[in-house]
């Protein structure tokens, strides 16, 4: 689809030959229609000379698999406590099912996608996450097991894929120097990846319209917010799964990405509406007011 006729042509041109890092979260993978719409937007970007790179989550797919094998898991501030057994299932769901489904859908739409994880080509080096939790005004460290943070990224593999016209589809699993596998929150992984790739734009897809001042009121959408203000709202109006999402935007912006956005991936054409209309559809987090 040629989009310069339907959308703002100068906004389209600004992103041509630039990387747009899309974090495709599990909440925007709930049904096949939604998935097809997301893939369709990604294909439209590519058809119009923009370079999409996808980092996916898949919290729902992990939950489904863990339920099937009767393994319980707990979330602490948006991070799934991951013991060795759970790690195996996380990798199965993310690098197995979710990754290959996205690849299949892009290929079926006539493009060439390649599915990789942080492990491939030694792309991402993980390190065990040191998670500090404040309980009763006291800070304490919690052991999240195989939950990792991104320590280092080597972008050579992704750049090679892009150069050969492949769309990289990346699962947020990586190994550490300690030779252990780590489960990295997909938002955090994506934010780091966006910075390392010098992406022009980072977009996190979820199931709410963006950052809300009241998480239970869909009408309380914040259209624009500065990095500093977003940081100040952490733990206050920004809670649960939204914490790593906003953190990922901050990581991307501090890594040099020009704009970071949180949008509702369950809505049709949400990516195109956000990027190529003045009104936009979600939350834009930027370095300046
Ligand atoms: N201030 C906020 N604004 C919007 N959503 C919020 C906020 N605080 C917490 N949330 C919650 O964060 C969820 C999104 O995070 P998460 O479930 O991890 O998404 P995904 O799986 O799409 O990555 C929303 O569905 C919402 O319930
Ligand atoms: C450490 C950690 O929490 N990892 C996440 C990885 C998947 C993810 O982030 O998926 P969504 O984007 O769908 O939430 C998890 O185990 O659920």
Automatic annotation (TrEMBL):
Pathway: Amino-acid biosynthesis; L-arginine biosynthesis; N(2)-acetyl-L-ornithine from L-glutamate: step 2/4. It comes from the Bacteria. HAMAP family: ArgB. Its main location: cytoplasm. It is an enzyme of class 2 (transferase). Residues 19-264 form the Aspartate/glutamate/uridylate kinase domain. SUPFAM superfamilies: Carbamate kinase-like (SSF53633). It holds the Pfam family AA_kinase. GO terms for molecular function: acetylglutamate kinase activity. Its EC number is 2.7.2.8. This is Acetylglutamate kinase.
